[in-house]
Specification:
Elements (H helix, E strand, L loop, with lengths): L1 H6 L24 E3 L4 E5 L10 H7 L4 E4 L17 H15 L5 E6 L1 H12 L4 E7 L15 H17 L2 H11 L10 H9 L3 H13 L3 H4 L6 E6 L6 H11 L6 E6 L6 H4 L1 H13 L4
Parallel strand pairs: 2-3, 2-4, 4-5, 5-6, 6-7
Antiparallel strand pairs: 1-3
Helix pairs in contact: 3-4, 5-8, 6-7
Length: 291
């Protein structure tokens, strides 16, 4: 439980998400923007802060206009709707931000849940996403544990995890995050910071996002996507390159535009464990011309 609720840190336009028509929307989402140039959306993962991108945002702002998404309900930002609508709301808010800033289309990079949201946007709004970079995220997260997993077989476990998270005391939840973060980033300098992001998130939003990650399978939608997509995945001694390459190759098999790249000796937060390699791969993915 400790590892699972942390490893998917860092997710509908599709499926049975509750309608959002009656929910109040901010006139313009409170996202930080910096720099000038082609528009680039950067989205963090579950429970995470926009500070996920601190190691690259200033350098990228010299070439791009960077838009830093802060998902409502995560890392100290108050939720702006029912927890069970978190995925639909987060994705729609990114579209709202583009509209507010009169951005017709943008480059997009997302870490974990942010990568999952990128797939949703590329499928639901293909005209708004010019290029997609997915950082250490799968189109169906239970594949991390079983290649035979389906949304149906994962549902009971997902419900159990959600109930357990909601049933924890504040101290129990904090301890879970403080232990689990050690499997997410090798660089101990960031352990406290990343754990605090989850601890200061809205618990119901956090739990609902985990449930959505476990029960939403985007693989069937990949065959219809045409957005140029790069996946940057981490490998390490516990998740060797051979296993990670096979996992990602199989998961994204029906996405013809997928280009999978592996960064070795890193846990989930590649930008903190291998910052120079991460920036190199991210820039390469953003700058390469689309076929």
């Amino acid at each position: 439980m400790k590892v699972w609720t942390s490893i998917i840190t860092g997710l509908s336009f599709l499926g049975s998400t509750p309608a959002l028509a009656d929910q109040p929307q901010e006139a313009c989402p409170p996202y930080e923007t910096l720099g000038a140039g082609p528009d680039l959306i950067l989205t963090p993962g579950l429970g995470s802060s926009p500070a996920t991108w601190d190691s690259v945002k200033d350098a990228l702002s010299e070439s791009y206009k960077v838009h830093l998404v802060h998902v409502a309900g995560f890392a100290g930002r108050a939720p702006n709707g029912p927890p069970e609508t978190i995925i639909a709301r987060a994705a729609q808010e990114i579209v709202d931000h583009l509209d507010c800033n009169k951005v017709e289309s943008a480059l997009y990079a997302g870490h974990s849940l942010g990568g999952f949201l990128g797939l949703k946007l590329a499928k639901g709004h293909p005209d708004r996403i010019k290029k997609l970079v997915i950082v250490d995220a799968l189109p169906f997260f239970p594949l991390l544990f079983s290649p035979q997993a389906t949304a149906e077989t994962a549902a009971a476990q997902a419900d159990g995890f959600k109930r357990q998270i909601l049933g924890q005391s504040a101290g129990e939840f904090a301890q879970t995050q403080q232990v689990g973060v050690r499997s997410l980033v090798k660089n101990s300098e960031y352990h406290g910071t990343i754990a605090d992001w989850s601890i200061t998130s809205d618990r119901a939003t956090f739990a609902s996002a985990i449930y959505a990650l476990m029960t939403t399978d985007l693989r069937p939608a990949l065959k219809d996507m045409n957005t140029p997509t790069t996946i940057i995945a981490a490998s390490n001694a516990f998740a060797p390159r051979s296993r990670i390459e096979a996992l990602y190759r199989d998961a994204y098999a029906s996405l013809d535009t997928a280009d999978i790249r592996i960064v070795e000796d890193s846990y989930h937060f590649i930008m903190f464990d291998q910052p120079e390699l991460f920036e190199t791969e991210l820039r390469r993915a953003l700058e390469e011309p689309a076929d």
